[in-house]
Amino acid sequence: MSASLLPSDSAAAHRSRDLLAVFPQLSDLPGLPQARMLIDYVIGRRLGVLDVSGRDTEGTFVSAELSAEVPENLILVDDAHGLQATLLSRLTQVCTYNDRLDEARTLAAAVESLAGAGESAGVAGEAGAEAAPVLAVSELSEIAGLAELGVGETWAVVNAPKAMNALTETISVLQPFVSTVIVIGRSDAMSRGVNKELARGFGRVDVSPGVGKHRMIIGSRPLSSPSLPEFPRRGVITHRGVGELEVRAHGACFSGTKSDEGSELLIDSLLVLLDDEAPESVLDLGCGNGWLLTAAMRASGANTGLGVDVSKAAVASARATAEANGVGIDVILGDAADSEEPALAGLGEFDLILLNPPFHQGTAIETETAAALMAAAAEHLAPGGQVLTVFNSHLRYRDRLESIIGPSRQLARNKKFTVIASRRD
């Protein structure tokens, strides 16, 4: 595949290389190939070198008047490393949204650090002006109220999520406010489903040439009557010991409106424990769609319930799930895997803490997040209370739970999952 969308000897290619040369420290950072592809695309479109699909326009008429300022505003969704925001802000006004709190913080730190590097190099924006400040919104729907997005053409860049529902909801929110949506990701992860979701709201869908291992799928010409679904999704989960619970889930929420087998095994174990003791308070670190916490509250009759999650979609989903079932809980946005997370300060202690920790970072197995969540559980566990942890059996977390929290015993195990109960020493 090509190393760039741009013809190597074109003025656009030189301009792209000049911009990247301002930040030599980016060469080894993750996320650079996609950021560079977006730089090439924006500059190529502005100079009339590339058409909407990202292909060479040689021999094709392109109106300079229509392309010169494209885009004037750019929305970046889930730029996990901050490289896209840093580079593209030197070309246009950039607004960012990240579903995950930790990624939003990484982006903000990267933009601040790399912007300082650009200033020290004495290089201004593409047209000789200073790089535009990067705006961040806490909710994607807030873009409707940004005055900066009321002038000129607005594009959106969506970094392809693993869950198609996340993309579907993002497109649904953005479609009324943008002229173009660019979904960018690894070529092997860009299914035809992306084309289908863009076609719900846009009259034209193009697939770009591949650059390295990456590709863009581009929706343009917004439909006046799009067929966009509504969120949160609604579903029902039935558990023999808890009964029927309504579930609400936003697109980026893990597991959607379904329960996972591990959470069901954890509830089975909890029901057995409740024969001996009933907790007054329950904490779920990584509450997802809220089904596990809501089920635990219903089963135990606890007076206090709190969910914490690093995902804004999960927090909104858990609140909606609890409300749909008439269960009173609080849900807060916070990174429970961060020992310095301010949202967790002063939460107090809980009689029962639920853990169903993630073990993947992308496609790689990763267990450090689980260890950090165990440490957070130990910090907030009341004397005499218990932490119930469910995990994939091959991870063998029991020894780690023993060392971080205290004496631990196995409550349940099947072919896939294990549930361990841990108490403080």
Automatic annotation (TrEMBL):
Pfam families: MTS. Coiled coil: none annotated. Keywords: Cytoplasm, Methyltransferase, rRNA processing, Transferase. The keyword Methyltransferase applies. The keyword Transmembrane helix does not apply. Residues 245-420 form the Methyltransferase small domain. This is Methyltransferase small domain-containing protein. It comes from Brevibacterium permense. The lineage of its organism: Bacteria, Bacillati, Actinomycetota, Actinomycetes, Micrococcales.
